[in-house]
Amino acid sequence: MDSKTVIRPTEPKDIAALRRLIVTTWHDTYDDSIGRDRVKTITDTWHATGRLEDELHSPDCISLVAEENETLVGHGLIKRHAHSDVCLSRLYVLPQHQGAGIGRQLLKELEDRLTDCHSLCLEVEESNLPAQRFYEKHGFALLRRKSGCGDQSEIPTLVLQKSLTSVVTNNTID
């Protein structure tokens, strides 16, 4: 990670730049596999400004950004779902900044903020081999396959899970 990179909580002032980062990364990653029009439809829904704003205020979300020279270059989001399931919903780094350790640092910072869970799951498109290799390198393993990603049917997806061994619960280490 570049010494000028700062990982910090996402703030309301970041929303417009965050949306641009997400849309750029999605187009770079998924245009070839699911098509530019479908990527636009998905990002317009899943990453709408109002939805990004709502996540900032949700007690069930941890949202971080990576910033270099006052420019957002990466983003990570963890969501807590029913029954204390915790999922990595987003881990995106702008294409020109990938491979510099920013994704690794965002993932570590997000995991460090999890104080009461034993595992972390995520979904990754089956054709996204670079992401699969990244997650495997960082301790995630295949849990199951799904025929759809989120509310999008027919996008084959892998559900990966990572065990978090040092978990703090009620100020004690489990």
Q: Can you lay out the helices and strands and say which pair or pack?
A:
Blueprint: E1 5-9, H1 15-34, H2 36-46, H3 49-57, E2 61-68, E3 71-80, E4 86-93, H4 102-112, E5 119-125, H5 129-137, E6 141-146, E7 157-163, E8 168-169, E9 172-173
Parallel strand pairs: 4-5
Antiparallel strand pairs: 1-2, 2-3, 3-4, 5-7, 6-7, 8-9
Sheet with the most strands, sense and barrel status: 7 strands, mixed
Summed up, the domain count is 1
**Which structural category do the helix and sheet elements fall into?**
alpha+beta
State mean pLDDT (0 to 100 scale): 87
* CATH level-4 homologous superfamily: Gcn5-related N-acetyltransferase (GNAT)
Catalogue the unreliable spans: 167-174
Over all CA atoms, what is the radius of gyration?
A: 16 Å
Strand order of the largest sheet: 1-2-3-4-5-7-6
What gap, in angstroms, lies between the N and C termini?
31 Å
Question: What's the number of helices?
Answer: 5
Class in CATH? Alpha Beta
Output the helix-strand order.
EHHHEEEHEHEEEE
Fraction of helical residues: 25-40%
The total count of strands amounts to: 9
What proportion of the residues form beta strands (DSSP E)?
25-35%
Architecture per CATH nomenclature, i.e. the level-2 architecture: 3-Layer(aba) Sandwich
Q: Given the C-alpha coordinates, what overall shape results?
A: globular
- CATH topological fold name: Aminopeptidase
